[in-house]
Structure prediction request, 352 residues.
Amino acid sequence: MNRRKDTLKKIGALAVASMLCAGMLAGCNGKHDDAGSSEGSDAKAITLTNVSYDPTRELYEEYNKIFAVHYEEETGSRIEVVQSHGGSGAQARSVIEGNDADVVTLALAHDITSIEEAGMIESDWMDEFEGNSSPYKSTIVLLVRKGNEKDIHDWDDLAKDGVDIIAPDPKSSGAADWGFLAMWNYAERKFDGDEQQVKDFVAKIYRNVLVMDSGARGSTTTFVENGQGDVLVAWENEALLSLTEYPEDYEIITPSVSILAEPSVAIVDENADRNGTQEAARAYLEYLYSDDAQRLIGENYYRPSNEAILEEFQDVFDLSVDLCTIDDFGGWNQAYADFFADDAIFDKIYSR
Prediction:
């Protein structure tokens, strides 16, 4: 089974390139270089822009290559995909403010809903593709240094005195939102739903956060490359990548309760209509569900949405972990209002 060979030492350069790219995209027009006609292999390539969240850089670098081959075989037209990456919430705001995305592939549905509410995405976007427009899944785990000197095994241990945590910011990072909800669900079970005890528990964890980066990849860099902290609250795919690249340096701890994270994808209809890329954008997102793409997704440490292909990776993922879902919080709109909106629960407990 293939495994990614790019190391996390490339992260800094990739992040800089991504920010430069995101800054330029807002002013770019002419996505279809041949005035709307790209029939024939000698035509200029269609340019498609994918605005995504932090850790998907490597996945989409590989996916864009196999999709370009597929698309040219199917249509006779060449296609090039431009990537933009950052914290999921920040990326959504960048699209609303002018980043010329044809598609968004973000960490959670609420970030896409915010673009919908700005009038840029049709309201039925979640029904447009399979599985609520979520072609891959993930979860939240804990990454510790080899030897696990602070004896970290579950969310309880993050609340202990003397534990330095690295975690992204729930105000800008989708991974952070999923992680917050996972630890909140754990605390609700632990304290039988006593809201004050739950708040106190989660607040204690956040008092132990040493560095709160704006995005998940930034947190991985802080922990892995910069050597800060005792434990990283991480996307499963980020933790697995770190373990693959540095097997002698890290261990993954799967908490007793985590969450089924469902990153979402959508066509940015307003931009795609203007750019003449609606058909290409649809093909780009649909192909994520193909067998070839689903296996590539698994090789990049995301959980394929295709259950049969997910089983092929049972040696990679802990498929027995107890996962709550966003439905346990009333869906993303309710969860965002309750926990992450201004002056909601996160703001109140973090300001203590």
Q: What stands out?
A: The domain at 8-137+262-311 is CATH 3.40.190.10 (D-Maltodextrin-Binding Protein; domain 2). The radius of gyration is 20 Å. The chain has two domains: 8-137+262-311, 140-260+322-350. The CA atoms of residues 142 and 233 lie 5 Å apart.
